[in-house]
Amino acid sequence: MLKPQITNAKRIGSDLPINERAEAACNIAKRLETAGDYETAYEALSEFWPDADTIPNVDGLDAGTAAQLLLRIGALASRRAAAAQGTANQETAKNLLTQSWERFDKLNEVTKAAEARGELGLCYWREGSFDEARIHLREALEIAGSNDSELRAVLLIRAAIVEVDSQRLDEALGLYNLARPLVDASQSESLKGAFHLGFGLLFRSLARPNDPEGYVDRALIEYAAASYHFEQGGNDRYLARVENDLGFTYFTIGRYRDAHTHLDRARHILIRLKDVATTAQVDETRARTLLAQGHPVEAERIVRAAVRILERGDQQAILAEAIATHGVALARLGNDVRARTLFDRAVEMATTAGDLEGAARVKLSLIEEMGQKLPAKDLIAIYRSAVDRLKDSQDQTSVKRLLGCGERLFESLERLEREQHEYNEDWEGFSLKKHVKNAESKVIERALREAEGSVTKAAKLLGFRHHQSLISLLNTRHHDLIEKRSTARKRRRHIVTKPQNNRKLLRKKSPPEPVDQ
């Protein structure tokens, strides 16, 4: 709807002073940003920012207008970078917003300085630098005061989002409670949608196993409200984010069909908007869902492509999560070396970004997927490191995983102790054949367990070319493991045997398909 205004502004622009043209461009661009239309917003600012790879042109503008232009362009650069649209990145955006904030500070324009600090905090959040984001948003709230209630609501919602991602859920709840009356008094559909979207994410994070408090239902109610307000405001981009969050929520409670439905909707919208980065995040959620459904091959293919896209940007915390998901997929496919490399990379990336709890969650994934294959010393060190970061976590899912990994650790230590007792220092009664057979039995038992009793799958895990090799071992050397396999099924036979000549014909190479013209 604002495109005609842009065209009209450009048509009469030569008749207006440069400061008025800049102010008009900033106003239109901000409205377009709020609606999620970043490319049209960029077009609105094209007179002063014709090339996204260069710094904006503020020549001839007074100090206040120049600061406002830098604010608007910096905020837009950050959003375009997050969507992987254009070549700008968060560092470019931070530089522009810092200049804007410093200029407003010199002019003693407190509210505008607070707005610039709020956008700067958002840049750090997008990078995964939660501590820096928290500092900028806290200071923005302090200097903003209560002069602009809508700005204060925006800052409170952003500060709450940072706390949710940092798993400081009590602090987030307090911030949302402060924002609620300001949001209720606002007429902005986008602001209301952002509040309900963030509040839904908080409830989802508060949910414990089996959800006795009903937090998941409350999250779904908040997501429904967010969808309504984003639809009313015409913000398809954030509507797609609601759909992605709905998909993730249904994945966590095991409703996989519903998860795929919402992820399909999110992806359809984002592809139309050419938002490749958020599309990659949707694909990462789908990969998690497929892993939960037992489809590691498809999950690995999807998350590998998502990682490649996210590597183009600078959202390090999100990229670390995707790399960890890729590691899980590879571990379940038996590619242990590559999986361990990815887990280590994800830990390093999350730690560097400042997402220390995220790094700890990656370590839990490493223990869950590869704990039985790690040396006891390494396993203990990894678990202790995860405990240090998660022992006070308010994320109930992470706490449950931490306890589960503790059980795995004890199982590994007990196994190690049993193996050590198998050896006798004076070699009395030792039998190499018996020892080799016992070791072989343990490996086969583990393969059958991980293959859920399927001899064919277990044989592949063990490196056999054909499952008959494993069946032979079970029948001749390991009778006690036969009960571990699933029930053997007889092969179906053709009632009518095909003539030999027909079988020869079937072995002939089929002619190539005709090429479409």
Secondary-structure topology with pairs:
Elements: H1 3-12, H2 18-34, H3 38-44, H4 63-82, H5 90-106, H6 110-127, H7 130-144, H8 149-165, H9 169-185, H10 189-206, H11 215-233, H12 236-252, H13 256-273, H14 276-292, H15 296-310, H16 316-332, H17 336-353, H18 356-370, H19 376-390, H20 396-421, H21 432-450, H22 455-462, H23 467-476, H24 500-507
How does the major sheet shape up? none
SSE order: HHHHHHHHHHHHHHHHHHHHHHHH
Tally of contiguous helical segments = 24
Name the structural class.
mainly alpha
Global geometry: elongated
Uncertain runs = 494-517
Rg over C-alpha atoms, rounded to the nearest angstrom: 29 Å
Strand content: under 5%
Whole-Å distance between the termini? 41 Å
Total number of beta strands = 0
Write down the overall mean pLDDT.
86
* Percent in helix: over 70%
Description of the structure:
The chain starts with a helix and ends in a 10-residue tail after the last helix. The chain has 24 helices and no strands. The radius of gyration is 29 Å and the shape is elongated. Residues 494-517 have low confidence and may be disordered. Helix 4 (63-82) runs antiparallel to helix 5 (90-106) and helix 19 (376-390) runs antiparallel to helix 20. It has helices spanning 3-12, 18-34, 38-44, 63-82, 90-106, 110-127, 130-144, 149-165, 169-185, 189-206, 215-233, 236-252, 256-273, 276-292, 296-310, 316-332, 336-353, 356-370, 376-390, 396-421, 432-450, 455-462, 467-476, 500-507. By secondary structure, the chain is mainly α.
